[in-house]
Amino acid sequence: MSRSSFDRAGLSLMLATVFVWAGSWIAMKLVVPYIGPYNFVVVRYLSGALVLFVGAILTARPLAMPAWRLTVMVGLLQTAGFQGCVQTALVTGGVGKVALMAYTMPFWVILLAWLILKERPSRLHWAGIALAACGLVCFAQPWNGMGSDFLPMALGVGSGFCWGMGTVLS
Q: Where do the TM regions start and end (predicted)?
């Protein structure tokens, strides 16, 4: 495979990922009123688990679970915490606001890695956090009153926290 065809294939896959990922937020917002936020999470994860289970069997991969306590903790944070908060927020909140708040995950990873793993953030990390925090404050516009946006945005930030904690622990 030549370098240019590899670059085109990689770029195509990256673009497809962006569209599928962005579209999934809209799809979640459309589906949640009909099935409910928690039922949607269950259906989504059971479907994914079934596909992975069949794939593992077909490829003869071992089904042993590594470090079960940590796996359960990370799974609860990523599944119940992250998805539970996101789906609940989507019931009343706008897709864009909820998604942006969920993507506060890097803030939490830096802070939690510092507290839990003793990985001290660099000056560049702090500068990035400060710049991103300014952007989030401008986006949230708390000076205009959050009104009905408060709960969905808080749940979005909570989902980012769960995602970040799951990342640090894994």
A: 12-32, 38-58, 98-117, 124-144
| Number of structural domains the chain divides into | 1
CB-based contact 133:100 (threshold 8 Å): no
pLDDT tens string 95-128:
888 999 999 999 999 999 999 999 999 999 999 9
Q: Which residue has the tokens 């069949």?
A: 54
For residues 113 and 119, is the Cβ–Cβ distance under 8 A?
yes
3-state secondary structure of 31: helix
For residue 48, pLDDT beyond 60: yes
> Rounded distance, CA 84 to CA 49, Å?
17
Taking the complete model, does pTM exceed 0.85, yes or no?
Answer: no
Tokens of 100: 């942006």
Burial of residue 95 (CB within 10 Å: 0-12, 13-18, 19+) is middle
- Angle (deg, nearest 10), helices 150-169 and 84-92: 160
Confirm if 27 and 90 have CB atoms less than 8 A apart: no
Domain extent, residue 112, equals 3-169
Sorted by sequence, the CB contacts under 8 Å of residue 91 that are 6+ apart come out as 32, 33, 37, 152
